Amino acid sequence: DPICSIAYSPDGTRIVSGSTYGSVTIWDAKTRTMEWRIMQHTDMVPSVAFSPDGKYIASSSYDTTIRLWDAHTGESVMETLGEHGGFVYSVGFSPDGKRLVSGGKDTTVKIWDVQ
Description:
The chain is mainly beta. The strands form three sheets. A four-stranded antiparallel sheet has the order 1-2-3-4, with no helix packed on it. A four-stranded antiparallel sheet has the order 5-6-7-8, with no helix packed on it. The protein has strands at residues 3-8, 14-19, 24-28, 34-38, 47-50, 56-60, 65-70, 82-83, 88-93, 99-104, 109-113.
């Protein structure tokens, strides 16, 4: 899949990528091999982010959703975190990992409690 977003884990051992076809993929940074891939978004994933402790991954999508994943298993941590009124362009964790911020085409910035 064509890649449109990418981020290193805080310890630099893993990479997460988001694709134009809605997949979120984890890679081993040293061996460059795929560890797992998720296909739960139904549209492009323009932003991915690791939590500061490296335990979670957030992904945003043009399907208007934000999702949270276990970084080691690829399992969904919760149902869709929330929705914007349009494409969700960007996500990022707070330094303490307790909150997630997102920005969307609906011109809003939202802060989510991920605990």
